[in-house]
Amino acid sequence: MLSAAEVMRLLRLRGCTRVFVEGGGVTVSMFLEAQLLDRLHMAIAPVLIGDGRPAIRLPPRVALGDCARPQYRVFRMGGDVLFDCDFSSRGDTANEQPEAQSAVTRVI
C-alpha cells in the first residue's frame, strides 16, 4: 500500500496542485497523521448505528494539550452539523476560536 506522502508526491508529479481527498476513517487518518490535510470536513449526525467502522484513528497523545485543535467553523445541515476544520496553519490554536463560536448557544 502507498503512503499518503507517496500518493501526494505522485499527484504533484502529474501537475496536481489541489487534491480533494474523500474517504473513510482509514484514508482520512493516513492523511491527517502525515499532516497532508489543509481542511477536514466532519459531519455529525444523531444516528446510533452500533458497531460500525472506527472513524479517525491516530496514535494516542500523552496529554490533551498535545492533541490537534484546529480552527473551525460550524454549519447546520438540517438536524446534522458540519465541522469545517482548518489545518492550514499548524500553529497552536488551542486557545483560539472563531468569533462566531465564542459564545455558548443553545440550538433546538
Taking the sheet with the most strands, its summary is: 3 strands, antiparallel
Q: What general outline do the C-alpha atoms trace? A: globular
- Stretches where pLDDT is under 50 for at least 5 consecutive residues are none
Q: How helix-rich are the residues, as a percent range? A: 10-25%
User: From N to C, what is the helix and strand string?
Assistant: HHEEE
Provide an overview of this structure.
Helices cover 18% and strands 19% of the residues. The protein is built from two helices and three strands; from the N terminus they run ααβββ. The chain has 108 residues and is of the alpha+beta class. It has helices spanning 4-13, 25-33; strands at residues 39-44, 71-77, 80-86.
In short:
By secondary structure, this protein is of the alpha+beta class.
Tags for this model:
single chain; 108 residues; alpha+beta; three-stranded antiparallel β-sheet; 2 helices; 3 strands
